């Protein structure tokens, strides 16, 4: 495609290939041809003694003999560099014939390099003061320069330069020196944020403005909310050449400048620029594919790509696909015409092509690219490294890829295995390790993928818009036509990959990222670690992802969450193992199940069977060896486990601990031969079982090195009978939001859920009627989120008196499924779950399951006896402590029901209750009823009283303060109005104080402080008789408040005329008090 300038020598490099297979030993061919760039000549017959010189010479000879060949043809490449000045193209005329193959392979021990690079010589010192050298290269254009095989940096300014603000045509600037930069039309703005990496060329610069070339600038501002931002840096000006290792090409003079690094000698160094874009193209067509061709043991190196230097720049839609052209009125108009980045090696309508043991490196775009209609390709045992864009791409994203008119255009049955993908996307940071678009049965397995700026593997395309029926989440399907047929994407497999150290520069991605419908697709056995918080999920099922089975993956050192489903549908995520329990489902994720996943304490508890199996298979680990462990001794096998079955669907296993020379770090549990759980300690809970079914369990142990023991002796258990009493029973709720209606919480389907009304605050509740009285022995609650709920479970025989089954209101949940197993059954017909705190998510329950047995005949019918009457200790005008004599019962007291004016206010097991929120000077009647475990209830005992008047000693009294800010003056803190407040002077630091003069020394028993904020204050209350000597009433300076209203009670009344509140810490809000109230005894 591109012609090298005359007089420049072609680059010779010494890259280590992925693996040079022996042609004679690894494969026996019927015809063997030889090529040598050093000793060969294209007029030779291609024998070992008289080889061809060039790839073209060998190819042309193969064409002349292939139709008559009765076996495979091997083209054996000797050591050395095979320089290209244009693309080496293979077509159907070069296909292996009659079921035989044509393979271009390295000679035994050879490391042949197919190179599109040109070596630059003739360096002379140009600027001695700055140690800048110059070489004249004529009409060469390049975006990369390599010195001794190392990519150097195109001259760039500092990171995040200040003083830029966006305008309609570019940027307003304050750095007037920028106007003096030369060749401004070749300067680029590099801007990266989120998942986007933009590169746009400058048009011109004045003292106050930088005008951008508008084709790129227009397209870079189409995506609302993801537009190009201010520069991450400026690039490609001679004036930026200030750091060793930087270079600059002056295209107006044809001069190349370079500032050497310490130790580099340009007189002896090999300086290379790439000149050819497509090194190798295999071009078939729909009627005549190119087929049965292989490449083995070859290095593909020094390819260029100059499109980002043009007026389109590099405007990413996503994953390195570009928005180009001028006919783009809005972002939606571009969706079906994003441009795929080309590869150094490209296959179009290729069948049964193989790439094995090759190296793809020093490439300016994508490494290997499989285009439309590529079928049956094997990509195995290769190394992809130091590539500007994505490592390898499988399939396309055009309409012909998603909805082809002819099935021969489907990209299918391609296999990507045992490859190393590292340090790719190093110049276009929104690109990927491995990309697969609309494909059928792509297998991506046993690859080692690491050190990437963005996502590791991306599968799928279209955001659901091109799926059958489109995506109803987007009005008008975002302008994309709605098809009535599914896309070609299905049956895809991502298994057993080792992925780590990804998302190092971009955000909103993951180790494995998916889009759109992919029926019968699997994500399994992958070991993922080193995932920072910019990754929204280690596995990220993004918009429209559907029909994935995500199972038995392992996650270590994941900062944010192990999985995110965003607009996901029909996804099952089960039996995964993670050190990070957090995951989330959001934005209309429906009909998806997240269940039976295991959280372990540390990476060394993750199942060794996943960790050891992920990544390169043993015969390929020489491609990128890990640091070997000196420990090869496995732990002893665990003892035969024992099993307890508290629920018909849950088994609790325990076993004697294993031993190991360096220590056992964890255990793996297998059910009927399949991995289902893991733990640090010798016990675990296995869920998702079926009542009455027989299961066999075994256990293995592992150590820190990943050595796994033999399996324990097996134990077989038959789960007890029993059914979910709540299944399909009537449900009432506090509220709900469509389509998450109440019945979905008792439908037996863990992919559907009830959710409270949108935007409503906590608490919320759901109540199920079991239809008859039962002895309730256990409840399983499966929440939407992995963690963050506070809740209370209650049972009732009559819906008016409730018994607490489990109180989880003090601490949030840490798992999605919570199990409450009762040592003593509780009688009830109704079960209620109240979500008291949801971490802003709202009550949302996948399933509420209740277990127990009908009440037996002859059950306890004797009611408790409760005598005497309640008493009240009034603490404040609106607060009192209620107490009563303990009840008696033949079977024991289960608890007490307390009502206030006929409305239940509490269920308690204690004979005392603090009641607050009462109105001053108001009569109330309280009743207490005792009940036993069978639901029998005593006669009520009653107390009627009138609360005292609100005699606030501080009301309207004189106040002094440290400072104040209008209109929040001091007197507003003692005006009896909880809607007004005092606030300290604006911008003043802590501490601040407010002091009230009660007028005379008086007895003080309690002080109530109502702060502006609900939390975050540290403070101290003091009192004094004379305003000089102060005593502490309450010290809250160690721990910040967690509620707006804080009450302090003195053990005994104190004498005080002055009360002072000092705010020692305000969490940057400043002292701010709605009301300071002081009370004596009642």
Report on this structure:
The radius of gyration is 37 Å and the shape is globular. It has seven domains: 23-118, no CATH class; 121-274, no CATH class; 365-490 and 504-573 and 580-611, no CATH class; 635-718, Immunoglobulin-like (Sandwich); 731-854, Jelly Rolls, CATH 2.60.120.260; 871-946, Sandwich (Immunoglobulin-like); 959-1079, Sandwich (Jelly Rolls), CATH 2.60.120.260. It starts with 22 loop residues before the first helix and ends with a strand. It has a 13-stranded parallel beta sheet with strand order 1-2-5-24-30-33-36-39-42-45-48-51-54, with helices on one face. The protein contains five helices and 83 strands. With 1082 residues, it is mainly β. Helix content is 3%, strand content 40%.
Sheet with most strands: strand arrangement: 1-2-5-24-30-33-36-39-42-45-48-51-54
Report how far apart the termini are.
Answer: 96 Å
- Unreliable stretches, pLDDT < 50, 5 or more residues? 1-27
User: Residue-averaged pLDDT, rounded?
Assistant: 94
Largest sheet geometry: 13 strands, parallel
Structural class: mainly beta
Task: Give the tally of β-strands.
Answer: 83
In DSSP terms (H or I, runs of 4 or more residues), the helix count works out at 5
The rounded Rg comes to 37 Å
Q: What overall form do the CA principal axes indicate? A: globular
- Integer count of domains: 7
Percent range of helical residues = under 10%
Strand content: 35-45%
């Amino acid at each position: 495609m591109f012609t090298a300038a005359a007089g420049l020598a072609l680059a010779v490099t010494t890259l280590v290939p992925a693996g040079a297979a022996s042609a004679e030993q690894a494969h026996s061919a019927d015809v063997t041809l030889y090529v040598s760039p050093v000793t060969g000549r294209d007029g030779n017959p291609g024998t070992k003694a008289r080889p061809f010189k060039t790839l073209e010479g060998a190819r042309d000879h193969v064409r002349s003999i292939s139709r008559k060949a009765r076996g495979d043809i091997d083209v054996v490449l000797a050591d050395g560099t095979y320089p290209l000045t244009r693309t080496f193209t293979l077509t159907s005329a070069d296909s292996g014939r009659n079921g035989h193959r044509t393979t271009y392979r390295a000679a035994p021990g050879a490391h042949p390099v197919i190179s599109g690079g040109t070596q630059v010589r003739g360096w002379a010192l140009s600027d001695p003061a700055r140690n800048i050298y110059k070489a004249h290269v004529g009409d060469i254009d390049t975006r990369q320069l390599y010195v001794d095989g190392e990519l150097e940096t195109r001259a760039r300014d500092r990171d995040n330069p200040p003083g830029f603000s966006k305008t309609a045509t570019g940027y307003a600037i304050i750095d007037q020196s920028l106007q003096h930069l030369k060749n401004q039309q070749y300067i680029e703005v590099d801007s990266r944020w989120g998942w986007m990496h933009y590169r746009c060329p400058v048009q011109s610069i004045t003292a106050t403005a930088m005008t951008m070339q508008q084709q790129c600038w227009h397209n870079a501002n189409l995506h609302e909310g993801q537009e190009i931002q201010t520069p991450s840096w400026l690039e490609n000006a001679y004036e930026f050449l200030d750091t060793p290792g930087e270079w600059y090409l002056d295209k107006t003079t044809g001069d190349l400048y370079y500032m050497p690094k310490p130790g580099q000698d340009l007189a002896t160094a090999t300086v290379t620029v790439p000149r050819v874009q497509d090194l190798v193209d295999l071009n078939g067509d729909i009627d005549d594919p190119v087929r049965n061709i292989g490449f083995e043991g070859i290095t593909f190196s020094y390819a260029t790509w100059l499109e980002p230097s043009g007026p389109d720049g590099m405007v990413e839609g996503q994953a390195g696909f570009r928005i180009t052209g001028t006919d783009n009125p809005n972002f939606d108009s571009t969706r079906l015409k994003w441009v795929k980045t080309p590869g150094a090696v490209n296959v179009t309508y290729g069948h049964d092509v193989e790439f094995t043991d090759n190296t793809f490196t020093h490439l300016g775009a994508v490494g290997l690219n499989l285009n439309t209609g590529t079928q049956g390709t094997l990509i195995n045992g290769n190394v992809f490294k130091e590539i500007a864009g994505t490592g390898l791409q499988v399939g396309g994203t055009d309409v012909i890829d998603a909805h082809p008119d002819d099935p021969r255009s489907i990209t299918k049955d391609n296999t990507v295995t045992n490859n190393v993908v590292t340090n790719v996307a190093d110049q276009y940071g929104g690109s990927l390790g491995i990309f697969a678009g609309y494909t059928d049965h792509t297998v991506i397995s046993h690859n080692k993928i690491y050190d990437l700026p963005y996502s590791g593997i991306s599968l799928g395309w279209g955001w659901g818009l091109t799926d059958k029926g489109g995506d109803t989440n987007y009005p008008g399907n975002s302008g994309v036509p709605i098809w009535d047929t599914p896309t070609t994407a299905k049956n895809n497999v991502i298994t057993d990959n080792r992925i780590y150290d990804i998302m190092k520069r971009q955000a909103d991605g993951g180790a494995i990222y998916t889009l759109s419908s992919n029926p019968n697709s699997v994500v399994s056995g992958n070991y993922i670690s080193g995932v920072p918080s910019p990754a929204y999920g280690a596995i990220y099922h993004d918009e429209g992802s559907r029909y994935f089975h995500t199972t038995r993956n392992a996650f270590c050192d994941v900062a944010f969450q192990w999985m995110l489903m965003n607009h996901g549908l029909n996804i099952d995520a089960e039996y995964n193992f993670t050190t990070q329990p957090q995951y989330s489902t959001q934005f209309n994720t429906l009909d998806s199940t997240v269940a039976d996943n295991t959280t372990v304490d540390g990476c060394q508890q993750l199942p060794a069977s996943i960790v050891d199996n992920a990544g390169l298979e043993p015969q390929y680990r020489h491609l990128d060896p890990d640091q070997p462990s000196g420990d090869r001794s496995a732990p002893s096998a665990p003892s035969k486990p024992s099993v307890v079955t508290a629920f018909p669907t849950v088994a609790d296993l325990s076993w004697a601990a294993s031993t190991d020379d360096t220590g056992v770090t964890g255990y793996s549990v297998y059910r009927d031969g399949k991995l289902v759980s893991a733990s640090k300690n010798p016990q675990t809970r296995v869920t998702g079982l079926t009542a009455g079914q027989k299961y066999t369990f075994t256990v293995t142990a592992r150590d820190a090195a990943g050595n796994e023991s033999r399996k324990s002796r097996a134990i077989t258990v038959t789960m007890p009978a029993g059914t979910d009493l709540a299944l399909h029973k009537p449900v009432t709720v506090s509220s709900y939001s469509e389509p998450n209606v109440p019945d979905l919480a008792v439908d037996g389907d863990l992919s559907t859920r009830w959710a409270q009304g949108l935007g409503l605050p906590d608490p919320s509740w759901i109540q199920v009627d079991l239809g008859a009285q039962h002895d309730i022995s256990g409840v399983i609650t499966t929440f939407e989120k992995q963690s963050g709920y506070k809740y209370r479970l209650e049972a009732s025989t009559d819906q008016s008196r409730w018994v607490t089954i489990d109180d989880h209101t003090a601490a949030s949940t840490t798992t999605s499924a919570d199990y409450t197993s009762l040592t003593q059954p509780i009688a009830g017909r109704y079960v209620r779950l109240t979500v008291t705190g949801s971490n802003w998510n709202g009550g949302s329950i996948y399933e509420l399951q209740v277990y127990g047995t009908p009440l037996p005949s002859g059950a306890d019918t004797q009611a408790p006896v409760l005598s005497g009457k309640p008493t009240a200790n009034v603490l404040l005008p609106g607060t009192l402590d209620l107490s009563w004599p303990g009840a008696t019962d033949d079977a024991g007291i289960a608890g007490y029901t307390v009502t206030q004016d006929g409305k239940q206010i509490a269920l308690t097991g204690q004979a005392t209750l603090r009641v607050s929120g009462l109105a001053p000077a108001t009569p109330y009647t309280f009743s207490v009823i005792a009940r036993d475990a069978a639901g029998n209830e005593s006669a009520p005992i009653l107390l009627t009283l009138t609360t005292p008047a609100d005699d606030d000693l501080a009301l309207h009294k004189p106040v002094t303060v440290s400072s104040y800010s209008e209109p929040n003056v001091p007197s507003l803190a003692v005006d009896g109005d909880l809607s007004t407040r005092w606030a300290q002077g604006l911008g003043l630091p802590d501490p601040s104080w407010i002091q009230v003069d009660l007028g005379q020394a008086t007895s003080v028993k309690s002080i109530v402080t109502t702060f502006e904020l609900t939390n975050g204050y540290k403070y101290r209350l003091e009192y004094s008789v004379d305003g000089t000597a102060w005593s502490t009433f309450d010290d809250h300076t160690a721990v910040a408040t967690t509620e707006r209203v804080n009450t302090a009670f003195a053990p005994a009344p104190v004498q005080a005329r002055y009360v002072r509140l000092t705010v020692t810490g305000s969490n940057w809000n400043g002292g701010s008090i709605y009301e300071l109230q002081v009370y004596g005894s009642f």
